[in-house]
Amino acid sequence: MSVASKHVVVAGGGVAGMEAAGALAELGHRVTLIEKEQKPGGHLKQWHALFPDRRPADEVRKYLSRRIDNRNIRLFTGVGVDKIRKEGHELCIELSDGSELTADAAIIATGFDLFDAHRKEEYGYGIYDNVITSAELEDMFNTGKITTADGRTPSRIGLIHCVGSRDEKVNNNHCSKVCCVTAVKQAIEVRQKLPGCEVFCFYMDMRMYGPYYEELYRESQEQHNVNYIRGKVSEASVNIDNRLVIKVEDTLAGRPLRMELDMLVLMVGMEMSKAGTRLAEASGLDRGINRFLETGDHHYGNNISHLKGLFYAGTCTAPMNITDTISHARAAVAEAVRYLNTR
Ligand code: SF4
Pairing mode, if any, of strands 255-261 and 131-133? Predict the structure, then answer.
């Protein structure tokens, strides 16, 4: 069998899945890319601008669309992958519509779900109209209108970091890695679009691990006057004027604060996706301490599963940014090709 005739199934049509499918097709492999939503693109579909350079998310969306515009790729949408099992040298891929595919190799790229903010009741999401998530603020950037529920222009916005991450109460001990820099980016965007609006970020630690992140953080303070308060918000409520009120312990100043805000933005973290969880459970795949897929080796086998011919790409293994997701997907393709060439 020639290398070009190998068939690889990619489960998940977000950033990792699209990049993996494109890279495999470019090498001459036949690829079936399976996306449970009606359109590929994952969470990126919703994003307006990306950190650290605030480039339009559309540029990366277009790159990924071009990536899968290849005659070697079949795209199935509106259908999920239910189970992957090994039969002889092949993998059998069971789909949610009851059909089945066979493949020489497969890559799982089922991505992440954003933390459901309803689970942090103390912040009032779903109770108070002006408590929104970071994804919903991105929607506002897309529409060009940052307004309260009753149509007013906010004069004070607070952003709470670590919502659903680093939090034993919701069984998520991990850091989601991208939400600190997302908060910095969104805070700058609010200040640019609404110069009269004060912006406050409430954080535990500022985790600026990527290139240009620290510079963005500095820019937000020096050029855009974003306020950073180290402390944990204990609760949100509304006062008689229907304005949000938060209580926070300022741990640097060592004093409790009570602040009125027009809008509260919850920086929701990343969790293993429900679709990925179901697939892992049905297929008997190992998962790690924070329920993401457990890879063969954290240092030199970070795309490998315990099932021969099955590989992992992107945030189904751990939180990561788009740059790292694309690199991880390319590494998964390298592992898959090495497997296909040697089996
Ligand atoms: S990146 Fe920042 S906001 Fe997100 S979980 Fe880590 S410390 Fe919290």
Answer: unpaired
